[in-house]
Design goal:
single chain; three-stranded antiparallel sheet; 3 strands; Arc Repressor Mutant, subunit A
């Protein structure tokens, strides 16, 4: 039996402010761990820990280039989770309802 990601957990990670900021940085291409850590004001170890679930299932890849850790997002794989996940629709509906109460 193949170990598959929990789509609701992936969505939870995508809505995490720090992780979404990191993924936004990766939209334009691969970035060094040191750059992402500095930009997020966290250590490289904390960065790796925050990305661990996404790394485990290939939503983000980690490579070693010239002795430096480099992260790359798999935009296609992340996009498929967003497109195919009914939990995303539920989350949007919940946010819309909450927004209507606030306004």
């Amino acid at each position: 039996m193949e170990d598959k990601p929990d789509n609701s957990k992936i969505i939870e990670y995508l809505f995490d402010p720090e992780i979404s900021e990191i993924l936004a940085e990766l939209e334009s291409g691969s970035k060094e761990s040191s750059y992402l850590a500095s930009k997020s004001k966290i250590s490289e170890d904390v960065l790796k820990n925050k990305l661990s679930y996404l790394l485990k299932y290939g939503f983000v890849r980690q490579t070693n280039e010239d002795g430096k850790i480099v992260y790359t997002a798999d935009a296609e794989k992340l996009g498929k989770v967003m497109e195919n996940n009914s939990n995303f629709d539920t989350a949007i509906d919940g946010l819309t309802t909450m927004d209507s109460y606030l306004n």
